[in-house]
C-alpha cells in the first residue's frame, strides 16, 4: 500500500469511519451538482424526508443540456425536456439553500471549468460530482471523483461517500515539450502508453519536470482525462504555480487566512520518500502532437506515426477494437492521420475550454480563415472564460476566421443540446471521448486533439500538423507523405 | 429516518438468477449503453426504453438482432472486459435494472459502473475470458436456461455447470448484509462526520 502520498494524506483527513463492509465513509469537501445527474438524487432525498447536510459545501451549475446559441438561451428554453431539467435544478437548489450559478449569475459554465476558476477547488480537498470528469480538480492536489446518482444522494444526505482506497501509481513525465505540443498531447501520450483500462484500481499521481512546467490550465487538462485512462482520480501535487493561480480568486480567503490555508496545502503534498504502489516513467521529449484514429481515447498516434494495424496489438481485445475502429473511421492501417478530411471543428469542453486554450488557438487562426467545407464552433467552458476572451479580443479572431463564437456549455462533447454531428461527419475535437455516437450521430467520427490542432484542422479542412503555422519555414511540420507506409 | 432498513430481509441479496443475455464486446461505454440524448429526463422511469437504443436498431430505425432484442425478459447479463467505461451516468445500470437485469457476469467493469451497480443492489461478478465466452455461448444455445449467481458462495451455475467467480469483497459484504443502500448506513454516523469536518482546515463553517 502507498504511504505518505497526497492521496493517503487527503484520504486520512476526510475519512470519517470504516463501514461494516470494509469501505471507508469519506467526507466530501466540495460537491458539484449539475442538471443531468442530480434531479433523481434530490427526489430520493425528498422521498426519505432528508435535508441536504452541507448546502454550503455544495455548488450547482448547468452545463450538459444548455443551448450555446445566444438567442436560444431565453427561459423557458425551447426544448421542453431541457427546460424541465433546468427548472428542477432551480427548484432543488433554491429549496435547499445551494448556490446555483445560473444564466443570470454570469458564472454559468461547465462544472469542471467553473469550480477551478472561482477558487472553489483547492488543494487538500475531496471533490465529487455526478460526472466522470471530476478528476479534473486533482490538478490542484485534491482528490476528485466522479460518482453515480445514488452516491449523489449519499453526499446530499450525509456529505459523504462510501469508498475504497485505491492504489497509487506515480507517473513521472520526463522531458520538455516542443513547439506546438501541449498538455493535451501529454495526456493522450499517457493513455496511448498505459491504455484505456490501465488505470482501473488506481489513482494517478502525475509529476516530473514536464508536469511541473505546466500552467494550471494545462494541469487541469491532464487530470481531466484520467478517467479516459481508466483511473477514477488523478492529481498533481500543489506548488507555487497552484498557489499563484488560487490567490485572489472569489472563493479563496485573503490575507492571514490564505497563508494558513497555504501551509495546509503544502502539507498534503506527497512526501519525498512517499511509497507508491507502482511507478512509471513517460518521456515526452520531442513528442509530436497526438490525434486519435479510433473509437476510444487509447487509439491514438503521434502524427508522425501511421495508423496501426490490428496485428500490431498483442491483446485479442485490442485487435478486435482496432478492427472495429478502422471500419467505423473508414481508414486503413498504415495510413497517416494527416490529411484525414474534417467536416467540423469543435473547440471547448471541460478538457480544453479555458482561456489559454482559446488564446493559443487564436494565434493559429490569426490571419487565416476556416476552410469552406468546415463548420467550426468555439464554445467557451464558462461565461467567465467567454467574458475574458471577449475582453482580450480573442472572440474577434475566432469570428473573423469563420468560427461560430458561442455561449458556455458542454455542447458537442456529448450533444445533449442542439450542437451535434450529423451523419458520418468527422469532427476535429478538443474534447475527451471519441466513442461511437458520443457527439450525437452514431455514424459520426471524432478525432481528439489539442486546441491548436483543432484550429489548424479548421483552417485546412483536414488533420494538419499545427507546427506549420508557427514557423515561416514549415520544414519541421509533417505531412501525410512523411508518414504513410505502404500497407503490407 | 424513513430509509431502507438494514434489518429488512429484502435488502439482503444472496442470490440472483433467471435467464441470461450475452452482451459481447470489450470497452462497451456508457454512451452506448444509454446514449446521452436520452438523459434529458428528471427521473429514471423511462430508462429501460433507451437501453442500447442505437445498437438495438438498424439504419431504418427497426429493431435488429441485438441480443437485448433476442433475449427479452432476461435477468443476467454476461459481458466482456471494461464494461461500462466512460461517463459516470447511473442511467446506464438503471436502464439495465429497469429492463430486467438483476445481476452481471463479466470479465471486468469500469469502476464507477461497478459502484453504481452496488448502489442499486446488482451483483457484478467477474471471471476469466474463457468462462465468460462459454456462458455467452451457453445462453445462445439455451435461451430459456437458468443462470444463478450465488453472491455468498461466489459461484455461477448454468445448466449442470457450476463455476467459481469473483465478487469484490465490499460489494459482496454490502449485498449479503443488506447494507448496499449506503445513505442509511452513513446517516447513522453524522456525529462522527461533524468531528471530521471540524478538523478540516478549509471548512471553518
In short:
The complex is a heterodimer of chains A (488) and B (205). Chain A has 488 residues and is of the alpha/beta class. In chain A, 33% of the residues lie in helices and 16% in strands.
General description of the model:
The complex is a heterodimer of chains A (488) and B (205). Chain A has three domains: 6-163, Aconitase, domain 3 (2-Layer Sandwich), CATH 3.30.499; 167-247 and 264-283, Aconitase, Domain 2, CATH 3.40.1060; 290-483, 2-Layer Sandwich (Aconitase, domain 3), CATH 3.30.499. With 488 residues, chain A is α/β, with parallel strands linked by helices. In chain A, the strands form five sheets. In chain A, strands 5-4-3-6-7 form a five-stranded parallel β-sheet, sandwiched between helices. Chain A is globular. Chain A starts with 5 loop residues before the first helix and ends in a 5-residue tail after the last helix. The longest helix of chain A is centred in the N-terminal third of the chain and has 17 residues, at 80-96. Chain A has helices spanning 6-14, 39-48, 80-96, 111-117, 149-158, 183-194, 209-212, 216-224, 240-246, 255-268, 316-329, 349-352, 355-365, 383-391, 394-401, 451-460, 480-483, and strands spanning 15-18, 24-27, 30-33, 58-61, 99-101, 126-129, 143-146, 160-163, 167-174, 202-207, 233-235, 278-283, 290-292, 300-302, 344-348, 375-379, 404-405, 426-429, 445-448. The model of chain A has no long low-confidence stretch (mean pLDDT 96). In chain A, β4 (58-61), α3 (80-96) and β5 (99-101) form a beta-alpha-beta unit. With 205 residues, chain B is α/β, with parallel strands linked by helices. Chain B has a single domain (14-178), classed as Aconitase, domain 4 (Alpha-Beta Barrel), CATH 3.20.19.10. Chain B is 33% helix and 15% strand. In chain B, the strands form two sheets. Chain B has a four-stranded antiparallel β-sheet with strand order 1-6-7-8, covered by helices on one side. In chain B, strands 2-3-4-5 form a four-stranded parallel β-sheet. Chain B is globular. Chain B starts with 14 loop residues before the first strand and ends in a 7-residue tail after the last helix. Residues 1-7 of chain B have low confidence and may be disordered. The interface between A and B is large, with 81 and 63 residues.
